[in-house]
Prior knowledge:
By secondary structure, the protein is α/β, with parallel strands linked by helices. The protein has helices at residues 3-16, 18-26, 65-78, 102-109, 139-149, 163-170, 183-195, 209-216, 266-274, 293-306, and strands at residues 31-36, 45-50, 53-58, 83-88, 112-116, 119-123, 153-157, 175-180, 202-206, 224-225, 228-229, 241-246, 251-254, 257-260, 276-286, 313-317, 333-338. The strands form 5 sheets. The chain has a 7-stranded mixed beta sheet with strand order 9-8-7-12-15-17-16, with helices on both faces. A 4-stranded mixed beta sheet has the order 1-2-3-4. Strands 5-6 form a two-stranded antiparallel ribbon.
Amino acid sequence: MVPSTLATLLTHALERRQPLLGRLREEQTNCYRLLHGTQEGVPGVTLDRYGDLALLQTFHAPASAGALETTAAWVSEHVPRLDLVYNDRSEPGSRIRNRLHGPMATAATAERTGVERGVRHLIRARHRGRDPWLFLDLRALRRAVAGDADGRTVLNLCAYTCGVGVAAAVAGATRALNVDFASSSLAVGRANARLNQVHRISTELQSDLFPALRQLAGQRQPTMNRGRRLPRFPTLAAEQFDVVVLDPPRLAKGPFGVVDLLRDYQSLFKPALAVVADEGLLYCTNNVAEVDETTWHDILHRCAIKHGRPIKALDVIRPDADFPSADDRPPLKMVRLRV
Length: 339
């Protein structure tokens, strides 16, 4: 990428975002994507703002020294007083491969706070994991869940750092239970809940998704499989929630089952349906680009009918305009289901 071209593309991206940025300021949000490279002329490159952090990431090939200098100069001119950090994630498995030195190394490990709709979220450019602690493309879903949360109970599955649960608690949920297998992610979520003074409402459960969902749905979770003892898991009573959020990873294999959004979304969707209270809401996501949206909706409808919880209404949620899609078919698909 020619540095001068990169600067022009960044400026054009910022100009296209002006209507959105005005709304985000009104919402008290300072976390958003500045450049969605796949759709804005720089495939495999993203530039995100998280409060006072500008995070540049590459996924196909490392950025050149010239591109880094151009980005730093552009950030300084157009969104000043932000610390720029660069993560090269072009290694297999999206691992961060580049070493940092000097001020950028210090900025990368600094713990800072970003704000979304007035909700504060801890942010760190580099930590033990790979992804930022707040997924910006899920903003529209967090906004929608918060709009439904007041006076309701919320179950947040595959919670990561509990962004949905904390947002729901701040919006007035009576209870928000965040389920994830990673203790490190839940620790960030616990800190986020305390940061927003909702730690008595937004709570965490460390568990593999399958035993948690099965037990909450009133199903038995075996302790043995093919003669081998399964890892320990929390024992849970059957319970239903007014709002359930299912945001699974694309593919994950574990001792209790396989998450495969391309071939078998039903294995997660079926028990998730069972934990939604009558007249409740089920939010679902599918982040696999190869999955056709209409086909996925049909799968959800058929599965719901088969298991006696037909979908009464399906509302499509689109990512905000900082995640543009030229064909209106974004990789991240989100729905709000009334069952």
